[in-house]
Specification:
The protein is an alpha/beta fold and 179 residues long. It has a single domain, classed as Rossmann fold. It contains six helices and eleven strands. The protein has helices at residues 12-24, 72-77, 80-90, 103-108, 152-164, 166-176; strands spanning 2-6, 29-33, 38-40, 46-48, 51-52, 63-66, 95-99, 116-117, 131-132, 137-140, 143-146. The strands form three sheets. It has a seven-stranded mixed β-sheet with strand order 5-2-1-6-7-11-10, sandwiched between helices. A two-stranded antiparallel sheet has the order 3-4. Strands 8-9 form a two-stranded parallel ribbon. Helix 1 runs parallel beside helix 5 (152-164) and helix 5 runs antiparallel to helix 6 (166-176). The chain is globular.
Length: 179
């Protein structure tokens, strides 16, 4: 199961485009509201989540996804429950996926040290100890990072690729006529 964590102020397409790609791949995915069942995006759209963080159980996690946006990224980082999820994912084989400003959360925890990573321009100093890259989406080990909203479909397809293989990811890309 893949869990996408939504906090008030999240960037809507950075959350929902990966959800769409994962569902097209028939990968089980749930959205998790950090503050409540209905979370408001940075552009004011309310999204009803599949569950709240109080209902979250780590037993079946293949990947966690942290969308960016402001103040969504700060709200994710300030949640002790989200911090515990990241720690648990880091201690297992689960992928930790972050886009836009959200890779800064992983950088502040020191998880990207020695890893290739990307983020929204201007947040690079928060990727403490990481190796800078020019790519839009980067996978290094169990970490998948992406620059921002402009590559959210590529980000979602990279998660599909890492979980179920490149053939399925390519098939989905062709079916949506992306690039």
């Amino acid at each position: 199961m893949v869990y996408v964590f939504l906090a008030d102020g999240f960037e809507i397409i950075e959350a929902l485009a990966p959800v769409d790609m994962l569902r097209r791949a028939k990968i089980d995915v749930k959205t998790v509201g950090v503050s409540s069942e209905i979370v408001t995006s940075s552009c004011g759209v309310g999204v009803k989540c599949d569950m709240t963080i109080d209902e979250f159980d780590f037993y079946d996690v293949e990947a966690v996804v942290l969308p960016g946006g402001m103040p969504g990224t700060l709200n994710l980082e300030n949640s002790s429950a989200v911090q515990k999820v990241i720690d648990n994912a880091n201690n297992t084989n689960a992928f930790i996926c972050a886009i836009c400003a959200a890779p800064s959360i992983l950088g502040h925890k020191g998880l990207l040290s020695g890893k290739k990573a990307v983020c929204f321009p201007g947040f690079e100093n928060s990727l403490e100890g990481s190796e800078p890259c020019s790519e839009y989406v980067v996978t290094d080990g169990k970490f998948i990072t992406a620059k921002g909203a402009g590559v959210c479909i590529d980000f979602g397809l990279e998660i599909v690729k890492q979980l179920r293989g490149g053939e399925l990811s390519d098939e989905i890309r062709k079916s949506i006529q992306s690039r």
